[in-house]
Amino acid sequence: MLETRVPGSLVAFVAAVLFGAVALVLIFAFVYSRVTPHSELPLIRKGNVAAAIGFGGALIGYCLPLASAISHSVSFSDMLAWGGVALVVQLGVLGVARLSVRHLFDDIKKGRAAAAVLLAAISLSAGLINAASMG
After folding, report:
1. Distances (CA, A) of 45 to 12, 52, 82, 113
2. Which of 47, 134, 41, 13 is nearest to 82 (CA)?
3. How far apart are alpha carbons 113 and 117 in whole angstroms?
4. C-alpha distances in angstroms, 135 versus 60, 75, 78?
5. Do 122 and 93 contact (CB within 8 A), yes or no?
6. What is the pLDDT of residues 55-105, one digit of tens each?
7. How far is it, in rounded angstroms, from Cα 123 to Cα 97?
8. Which phi-psi region, left, alpha or beta, contains residue 47 (left: φ > 0; alpha: ψ -120 to 50)?
9. What angle do CA 69, 71, 5 make, to 5 degrees?
10. For the chain, where are the alpha helices, taking DSSP H only?
11. Of residues 132, 125, 133, 135, the one with CA closest to residue 61
12. Cβ-contact 126, 90 below 8 angstroms
């Protein structure tokens, strides 16, 4: 019978990458929720669909380049660095969206989905372009 063994160092590396990626996503979610003028999670808990759309789009927009960083990085520190770049890009996109759309965050806080869909589309577009540039 053929037995396949995965080297312990490979298992440890994969575990570190997964842990690092989850940590980066949590860091992104924390930072993102601190730079917006409203707190997304309490709004989402109250049923604000617009907050969920905007925050969900930002999370996916961040995870797209993070996934690219995981698959293309040559080391754990390389993945962390590119994950940091993705975080900065998404926060920059948020700033540009905020300056471009006058009442964006007020509209999201009031539950207006149109503003949230626009923010999600902007975040996803930036995430796709960022992911492609990492490949």
Report:
1. 36, 9, 31, 16
2. 134
3. 6
4. 17, 15, 13
5. yes
6. 999 999 999 999 999 888 888 888 899 999 999 999 999 999 999 999 999
7. 9
8. left
9. 140
10. 8-35, 40-45, 49-72, 76-100, 104-109, 113-134
11. 125
12. yes
The whole-angstrom separation of Cα 47 and Cα 96 is 27
Contact 51, 117 (CB under 8 A): no
Q: Which of 66, 65, 60, 67 is nearest to 124 (CA)?
A: 60
Q: Please tell me the predicted confidence (pLDDT) of residue 15.
A: 76
Asked if residue 28 lies in contact with residue 59, where contact means CB atoms within 8 angstroms, the answer is yes
Separation CA 92–CA 96 (nearest Å) = 6
Q: Tokens 């999370």 — which residue?
A: 59
